[in-house]
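User: New here, please read:
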Amino acid sequence: QLQLVESGGGLVQSGRSLRLSCAASGDSFDSYAIAWFRQAPGQTREWVSCINDRGGSPTYADSVKGRFTIARDNAKNMMYLEMNSLKPEDTAVYYCAAAKTRLPRTPLSVDYWGQGTQVTVSS
């Protein structure tokens, strides 16, 4: 079992930056690939980014490529999402996620979810 708890969401103006954090506990965090997803009101949960268990092979959705950066610190059992040049369309609940055997790029491939943190970008 792996527990994930996000923090760092909030209200920010368009063009500004925000960093989300996710603290892991329980199982061996460094044996999981991790990801960030988001869900806007009335929308399905959308994959944002993922990275493998060692912090390599970061990949990003086209909508955030060049603006968001995923990272992890296995020594601290932490994962992060640095979000720059935020846009109103980035407004959503953001979820950290982990998967044991594969890079999580779809909700069905996720083994564990955080509870979510709200990010609101005003224009």
